[in-house]
Amino acid sequence: MPFPFPGMNPYLEASFLWREVHSRLIVALANHLGSRLRPKYYTAIETRTYLEDESEGVLVGVPDAIVYQGVQSRSPQPSAVSAVSIPASQPQKVRLVEAIEVKERFLEVRQVITHAVIAAIEILSPNNKRGDGRVSYLKKRQALLESQTHLVELDLLRAYPPMPMTGASELGDYRILVSNATQRPEAELYGFSLRDRIPLFPLPLQPEDELLTVDLYPLLQTVYDEGNFDLRIDYSQPVPEPALSEGDRAWVQQCLASLENS
Predict the structure, then answer these.
(1) In this predicted structure, what is the pLDDT of residue 94?
(2) pTM of whole model > 0.85?
(3) What's the whole-number mean pLDDT along residues 44-52?
(4) 105 Cβ partners below 8 Å, 6+ apart?
(5) What pLDDT is stored for residue 169 in this prediction?
(6) How many Cβ atoms are within 10 Å of 247's Cβ, its own excluded?
(7) Region of 154 on the Ramachandran plot (φ > 0 left; ψ -120 to 50 alpha; else beta)
(8) DSSP E strand stretches across the chain
(9) Domain boundaries, the chain
């Protein structure tokens, strides 16, 4: 099935798909920007590493708390001291769930020769928006906001609270935040709903540079096609959590039906 929505595809937000969508979209964005930034800048894909386990609802590596039957031992011999025979306690064999190392990509625009970071581009993951991962990400985000590096933050996940900001009349289902270092603390927020096309946004560079506008939608379509996500998504199932409103559910079904009938 071709890409069925005019904007974000909510089925791609499923936890078993998003990590791959995230990685593929970072690479697609890096390749797309690379040729447009030459010869003054280049894109660098950087990696952040963290530990993840079932404490955030993510099962890693092995099943959690699998209990095996205890091995039976021979019955204890009667004690000469006491007439009461107390059986030895038999331990159960269990398997522990250990944290695993997870690598997450983000993008930097760097200046040729000096390699100075001009802009950082983050595509948020569930880990960035919840629990200890959110705390860690917000520390990095604050460090960027206190620097001379521009920040572009792409939040394509409806789940979990948005990143902190003030002054927005409507945050939308999804958000693109553009923080130009020369305009802080003010920033530009592009909020959009499930039914909207993903808006174009500017990539801040240096004052003397021409404005570079980024269109994320065709890149998302490319990721969808090259990742064969049409074969991996069961569109007969409900959209992944969080649940949609009744109106949005009807709209999703209308999009899918119109594509099947075309």
Answers:
(1) 80
(2) no
(3) 81
(4) 22, 23, 26, 27, 45, 46, 47, 48
(5) 86
(6) 9
(7) beta
(8) 41-52, 67-68, 93-94, 100-111, 117-123, 150-155, 174-179, 188-192, 201-203, 212-214
(9) 10-60+94-261
